[in-house]
Amino acid sequence: MGNKVSQEEIHLVPWTEGYQAALTGNGTVLFSMARTPEREDLFKWAGPVYTNRKVLFARPDREISIKGPEDLKGYRIGVITDDVAIRYLLDIGVNQSQIVTESDVYAIIAALDSGEIDLWACPEASGNYFAEQATGNYNSYMVVYELQAQDTYYAFSKDVPDSVVQSFQQALDTLRDQKDEQGVSDYERIVYQDLGVSCAQQTFTDEAVIALVNITATAIEKNATDTFHRINAGEAPYRDPENPGLYAFVYDANVTMVAHADNILLVGTNLKGKTDVTGKPFRDEIVTGALENGTGGRSMYIQILYTLICTTRPHTTGQSEEVMGTPTLYAVAILRSVVYNQ
Questions:
Q1: Where would you tag: which of 3, 84, 226, 294 has the fewest CB atoms within 10 A of its CB?
Q2: Would you call the peptide bond into 14 cis, given omega within 30 degrees of 0 as the criterion?
Q3: What's the pTM?
């Protein structure tokens, strides 16, 4: 966007206060919020920024086991006021009378320790952080159930001009998509430095991944040039319109990106010897694996990316609903080599 934001313009506030500020419209942007149907028309949005894993924490000495929503019956569950976890809980059949709301996360932790509540609904990463702040132990409480994983966004109050939101989105896309000489974006470096990495659940089946690999490989065998053009245009089926985290991209034998359904800026870039933000040369491993299992001739390699890196320990925090997490393109599912003629 070209504009600098001063430290004085950034306010670290309790989630409920920040939510209400963005809701009432006073030139506010809130970091960060789950984008739900109920909230869609209440704010303007830029993102996604990361995938948030909302979980239920319990004290280990309680030995609570939750295998499904039916096991939540009778438990008292602490939640921050206005947190989307309230909706998640109600949607899976939890009675409103079981939900205890507080505006202060440390009040919820105190209630959990005293036995006033049995479970605490919170994003996993920020929950661990707050646990360490309150008790001195990052792992004071254990995750006993995952409620939902969902993309989170910057949420703007409705009085913010559309042009500002669009510029913000463009700046975020640039930060995420432009890679340096090592093949890593500033976005990836920031989230790795502050959050580290851990794996989230995939949001589609292995069968869907295999089907996309087979479709892409067959199309390349028939007409490589047209297929690469369609992949680079982000057309279906090479980028799933229902689940955009499932898409194809293609390297040649020299680890040059020749097609990418999600980030055309990478096309033409040679990534041989380049590592991800953790130092792993995964692209070389992709091509080496495909060559070792290939069919000979001139081969291309289709990689289907389906794992998002998400919540992990933050270095900074706020008392927000969805404070920390990190989606970053990191893990791969299946490789297949195919022969084609240009």
A1: 3
A2: no
A3: 0.61
